[in-house]
Structure formats: structure tokens, C-alpha cells
Amino acid sequence: MAIISEMDEARPSMVPFSASFDPSNPLGFLEKVLDVIGKESNFLRKETAEKEIVAAVRAAKDRLREAEKKKLEKESVKLTEPMEVEKAKKDSLKATEAMEVEKATDPMEVEKLKEEKESGPIVPNKGNGLDFEKYSWGQNLQEVTINIPVPEGTKSRSVTCEIKKNRLKVGLKGQDLIIDGEFFNSVKPDDCFWNIEDQKMISVLLTKQDQMEWWKYCVKGEPEIDTQKVEPETSKLGDLDPETRASVEKMMFDQRQKQMGLPTSDEIEKKDMLKKFMAQNPGMDFSNAMFNS
Fold it and tell me: Which segments constitute the CS domain (predicted)?
């Protein structure tokens, strides 16, 4: 395996690299890779190095999730006869289309739904969601935002909004609900809220349960968007779950310490433990005390 530095054009050499991979300690292997990158290039000195590494971690997670999904789909197909699978798909599609067409009273809306179903996943709007006649939605990795236009002068007391883990109901009191359906994935109800903006727009903010996944639709029954066409915000450490973020921050800190000839986080922890032990045992001789880095 060889690593080529993109930042060190003055030295475009192929650097030999070998390291054993221990499944029980994958971070150890990753730290060795970063160590080589730090020694042979200026990549880790870039201000955007952390963001690029975070983006790489997220992309790897997305690829793993997609691979697992495809594997499950293949295993499911193997358990069913091909003709039965095709028949089940057609029956399911017809039933879904019939329910959605029945809900739509506007002929133009009916035709639009049919066209969207036939064309498959569609390109998302600028907010990474979709725009409909009665509402629009958008998303980032952490949250989903829904905007619903209402008559100007609408007060909050005229709104009915119920946000549950897997379902949303919202509309105006005394009228049919504008949205009533299941989410693409679960949300954290305690971290969700709604408000009236300028007395003419209901804005609903939903906090995703899984904050490493793009939603294909907001409410069940909507056309699916092509999640490969979403435009994520600039990568941030805050986008990651606490465990992954802590691991990435630790690796970046250790690499910077090594480049400056300073102790890593593990070495600092060991030294602190030794100092504490020495303070607790003043009568012992620690003149030859050593520890492995």
C-alpha cells in the first residue's frame, strides 16, 4: 500500500507503507496511517484537515450503510420466487398510488403524483427536500424543517400541531389536516418544536434520531428524492455522534503532538497517573521509573 501526498508537489515519491490491521483496535491502524501522512506531507497542517477527515468518515459510513442495505435486499430476494417478488412490487405500487390519487382532489395534483412516481427519485430543492402545493420541506444531517403557508394574520392558537416519534399532524383548527403521516425515520419529540412566522407561515423543526442519514422523503406517501444529489453543508465535527467525534479529535491531537515532538494523549495520561502514584507513595524510590509510550 502506498500513500501519495497531494500537498507535497516538490517530492512526488511513492512512500512504502505496511501495517497489520487488528479488528479489535481499528483506531490503531488509522493512527499509523495518519502518522505516515503527517511525516510525508503537509496535509495535517492544513486548516481544513479536520473537516476533510470528518467528511471521509461520514462518506465511509454512508458507503457501509448502503452496502448493508443492498446485502439485505439480495438476501430477501433469494428467499422469494422472482415472479412472486415482481407481483408483490406491482401490487404494492398500485395500492400506494391508488391511496395517494384518492387523497388528491385537484386533477393537476393527481397528474403530478403519477408523473413523479413513474420518473423515480427526483432532484431535491435547494434545502435538500421538496416543494409541494401546500407545504415544503428541507433538511441537513441533524434536522428537518417544514414550512406551511397559512392565511395572513393566523394566530398560534388557531394551529393544531402534534409531533410524535414517528408521526406528524399539523393544520388549522376546524379544517382538514394539512399534513398527517409517518416520518421517513424517527425524530426526538422533546427536541422538536413549531412556531408561527410573521403570522403567515407555520414552521416546524424536527430533530432527527439518526443524525448521519439523509431522508428520502419527509412524510410517507411523498415522492422520494435522490439523496445522491443533496448538497451537504461544510463538514463539521459537530455533525458526528459524540463517540466518533471524540475519536477523531483524539487522533488529530495525537498527530499534532507527534509532529511537535510532544507526548500524545495516552502518554500524558500515563505520566499523570505516575505523578499521582508518586505523590501517594512518597517513601518509594522512583529514580528508575519508566513506562512504555
Answer: 130-219
SS3 257: helix
Q: What is the pLDDT of residue 218?
A: 94
Cα 199 from Cα 202, distance rounded (Å): 8
Q: What is the predicted pLDDT for the residue at 83?
A: 57
DSSP 8-class letter at 208: B
* Residue appearing with cell numbers 439523509: 214
User: Considering only CA atoms, which of 252, 201, 186, 235 is closest in space to residue 37?
Assistant: 252
Indicate the burial class of 250 (C-beta count within 10 angstroms; 0-12, 13-18, 19 or more): middle
pTM, entire model:
0.44
Strand order of the β-sheet with 201-207 is: 130-131, 136-139, 143-149, 201-207, 193-197
Confidence of residue 34 (pLDDT cuts 50, 70, 90): confident
Spatial CB neighbours of 224, under 8 Å, sequence gap ≥ 6: 120, 121, 122, 216, 217
Between CA 17 and CA 35 the distance in angstroms is 11
Distance CA 241, CA 212 (A): 8
Judge whether 15 and 2 are in contact, CB under 8 Å: yes
Q: State yes or no: pLDDT of 249 exceeds 60.
A: yes
Which residue in the block uniquely carries the three cell numbers 416543494?
131
User: Mean pLDDT highest for which of 10-24, 26-40, 211-225?
Assistant: 211-225
Burial of 53 from C-beta contacts in 10 A (0-12 / 13-18 / 19+): buried
- In angstroms, the first-to-last Cα distance of the chain is 26
pLDDT-derived band at 222, boundaries 50, 70, 90: very high
HSE-up of residue 279 (Cα within 13 Å, Cβ side)? 6
pLDDT band at 7 (very low <50, low <70, confident <90, very high): very low
